[in-house]
Write a structure and sequence with these properties.
The strands form two sheets. Strands 2, 4, 5, 6, 9, 10 and 11 form a seven-stranded mixed sheet that branches. The chain has a four-stranded antiparallel sheet with strand order 1-3-8-7, with no helix packed on it. It contains one helix and eleven strands; from the N terminus they run E-E-E-E-E-E-E-E-E-H-E-E. The chain has about 130 residues and is mainly beta. The chain starts with a strand and ends with a strand. A hairpin with a 4-residue loop joins strand 7 and strand 8.
């Protein structure tokens, strides 16, 4: 089965850290642009960070710059989102998506696009 599976979401205290994983099954992520998107309760889905499938180019939302880091390990067929200094406004369901045809700058502009693959999402909660 061809799919993306997110994991790593949890309940953490403000200032805490989480590492989300996006693992591909049935295909290789090597040449895909990957995006992380999130949707908070009552809010529209927004782009968090995207990474190129051809080089090390990355894109971050202003709200997470300096706190989040996107990376990929092609040997493990997995993309990660390291989230540090978490804030309550980081709450939401985090989704990863893969797209063969979009460059990284475009990927983060389309949080609702019909990308090649979408994961099911993983819940991140930040609370004391």
């Amino acid at each position: 089965q061809l799919q993306l599976v997110e994991s790593g979401g949890d309940l953490v205290q403000p200032g805490g850290s989480l590492r989300l994983s996006c693992a591909a099954s049935g295909f290789t992520l090597d040449y895909y642009t990957i995006g992380w998107f999130r949707q908070a309760p009552g809010k529209e889905r927004e782009a968090v960070s995207c990474i190129s499938g051809s080089d090390d180019t990355t894109v971050y939302a202003d709200s997470v710059k300096g706190r989040f880091t996107i990376s990929r390990d092609n040997a493990k067929n997995t993309v990660y989102l390291q989230m540090n200094s978490l804030k309550p406004e980081d709450i939401g369901v985090y989704y990863c998506a893969a797209d063969m045809s979009l460059i990284v700058q475009a990927m983060c502009k389309f949080p609702y696009a019909n990308h090649d693959y979408w994961g099911q999402g993983t819940q991140v909660t930040v609370s004391s």
